[in-house]
């Protein structure tokens, strides 16, 4: 018996693992090949596949319709692993999506109570926060909750450090609202801490943040090439335009991939209870120390939260931010429950109508 180590899969640099290989077994038996979705637009996608004969990677343009779903959260997304029918006509097609290990999901930009997947199968969520202006700590907390909810590890990059008057003071403020998270000050212009940041990235990293946070510039710096267009921020308010208009998977020179995402104006959580607990682990720890399990953190005796607010251990701003996100998440969950109930009613009516139209009459 040979003790030789199996050769790594050609897609290993894009995140392919032995566990994924095992999941793919039935699809391989059906004559399909694995691929990772790099970009999705208008019912088509770019999917990266491997040719074992030539030992090279190829990007195929594929049809996503066979794996489409009425629920946007279940639709193909950048970062998904797919079973690809490369021989389908008139163009290759996705036949199945492999189960996701993680997913960054926010509420849809519309008023409907649906989720939108920003990236799938992510190990690290890199949150870009510009130092060109004073960061909004409440927004940073939202991004952190979104990242923790995904199941991936958050990482904060304070970009444009060369434009900040007191970058270290701001970093300390951000660290206070990011317990358990590495916070780095970086500059794509000077190269400050880019090597440290690159070393902190996981096999698959998703880059999120507001427009104007320098995400595209940071992507180019990490990729070592001009892979993304860059626009200047407005002088009037320091805000940027949408440079990135779609999610795109980009290989990194030292291995691994980066998923660049469009700037997020709104950061709505979608089923974010665990994410809020992760982003506010300090607050959750205080609440757990209260005398009563059902403490409302108001006038109850032995309330650890009230005591922390009184002695300044817990900032009033952070407590209010925590409560706001909890209220928002409760409202979203109630909307989602109502939507699901309405969908069940709609399906029941369709079923009843089909029964009547078929002439089948139930006996009483």
TrEMBL record:
Enzyme class name: hydrolase
Gene3D superfamilies: P-loop containing nucleotide triphosphate hydrolases, Probable gtpase engc, domain 3
GO cellular component terms, A-Z: cytoplasm
GO biological process: ribosomal small subunit biogenesis
Record note on cofactor: Binds 1 zinc ion per subunit.
Cofactor(s) it depends on: Zn(2+)
Residues where Zn(2+) binds: 290, 295, 297, 303
All copies of domain CP-type G, residue ranges: 112-267
Record: residues binding GTP: 159-162, 209-217
Gene Ontology MF term list: GTP binding; GTPase activity; metal ion binding; rRNA binding
Keyword annotations of the record: Cytoplasm, GTP-binding, Hydrolase, Metal-binding, Nucleotide-binding, Ribosome biogenesis, RNA-binding, rRNA-binding, Zinc
Function: One of several proteins that assist in the late maturation steps of the functional core of the 30S ribosomal subunit. Helps release RbfA from mature subunits. May play a role in the assembly of ribosomal proteins into the subunit. Circularly permuted GTPase that catalyzes slow GTP hydrolysis, GTPase activity is stimulated by the 30S ribosomal subunit.
Entries under NCBIfam families matching the protein: ribosome small subunit-dependent GTPase A (TIGR00157)
Name of the featured protein: Small ribosomal subunit biogenesis GTPase RsgA
Source organism (scientific name): Peterkaempfera bronchialis
